[in-house]
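In the previous chapter we treated chains in isolation. Here, by contrast, the input contains two separate entities that must be folded as one system, with a combined length of 508 residues.
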Amino acid sequence: MFAQRAIEIENLHFSYPDGRQALEGISLSVGRGETVALIGPNGAGKSTLLLHLNGILQGRGTVRILGTVVEDKSLRWVRSQVGLVFQDPEDQLFSPTVFDDVAFGPINMGYCEDEVRRRVSQALEWVGMAGSEERSPHHLSLGEKKRIAIATVLSMSPEILAIDEPSSNLDPQGKWDLVELLRGRPETKVIASHDLELVQALCPRSIIIDGGRLVADDATLNIMSNIPLLQAHGLAPRRISVPAARA
Amino acid sequence: MRHSFLDKYSQLHSPIHHLDPRVKLALSFAFILGVVTTPPTLWPAFVLYLILLWCLILISRLPPLFVLVRSLIIIPFVVVVAVFVPFFSGGGVAGSYSLGPWQVTVSHHGLMVLWNVVVKAWLSVQALILLSSTTRLPDLLRGMQGLGMPRVLIMILSFMYRYLFVLIDEVMRMRQARDSRNFGGKRLWQWKTIGSMAGSLFLRSYERGERVYMSMMARGFDGQVRSLRRLQLSYAEVCLGVACLFLVVAVNVVPRFAFPM
């Protein structure tokens, strides 16, 4: 089975149990190997959309991953193909040691012990954290936690990486290190962020989501130069001008 | 923030530290069982237990003062419970004192009960300090699993170990935020503030729990807890474990015949 498209979403609607409408008719398609940014203001529905990519949430409409519809009976496979990295690494790293965390996915996928060990050391090497297996997540720096969080999904060798706010709370150096790391990954990447600097550095294509709707889908260059569009969706200051001389 | 973990000194190197956690767990359990089942009048047995335990503590290179101080921290709890016992039970009268309007009588039997509680608790606590200070908690959990403890319980314990300090950090941040807004005022107001802090801490933990669960599902968790078997018992470790076990049993049984009452 070889599908050209990594992700296809058709007319996806989702509302939370409290009735709040989070997604209203999202349709989009991402090709294999593409790196796409999901941008939009706080509460736009970016994280909710990411949670649909591997079936944590299931709304009305269809989500196809590598040609397979996300539904209950395909969940296991879909989750091995879509690596979801959460915004707060404290949520993602829940085990007493780094090894246990990175091994969690492969163990759930049923690999034998040698294979699990191979995958863990490979994933840690990929994110530049080789040899930190026995460390405790609590004693890692935030930058290191983010890297380990990425390693926890890389160890499942997913086809698609879905990353929520990779740069939040990172210092500039940590952020650029992370950009470097992600740029070197061959997977299809969907990155939800409102860090436009990071988006421009990583993603040739950007999708703006606001109020649960898809507002724009274009080359990042075009979107970034469309100041009125950015302003209308909370992505640029209300006034961009040289500070007026004070009286 | 960096906290000293529950398993302080567990990174040291000694034969005890490198012993298989299952052997250590089983031995600690056997030791405590031995101590608890020894009749309180069998004084030599308790001396032997103490010697045996302290041999192990010295081999493990734990600072003796650390073990003593830690074990004393537990004593007040026992004493509070035990200190009233001598005054309320029958048996021969050991002494009678008058404290103001009260006539206090201390019975032999009561003193024996007190001694029984204190010495057994103290020995058991020291054994647990030895166990928890020579075994990293992840290893301890693996040991429990190896001994057949249900995986769900192990997982709960490991979550506790992982998030205890995240929670402490959160409480500290909340306190800083509170103090920086000049916390003070009436007593009732203070209690209200503390109450709502506890409430919001609970909500935050609850939400974190949801997010952790989502991140587990995202990595293929389906409610079944799987794990790698990573422990291998060496022949020497088994021998050592059996030898220590015999010692504990011997200390429990032999003095009963050597010092018949």
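Chain B has nine helices and two strands. The longest strand of chain B covers residues 93-99. Compare these points with the single-chain example from earlier in the chapter.
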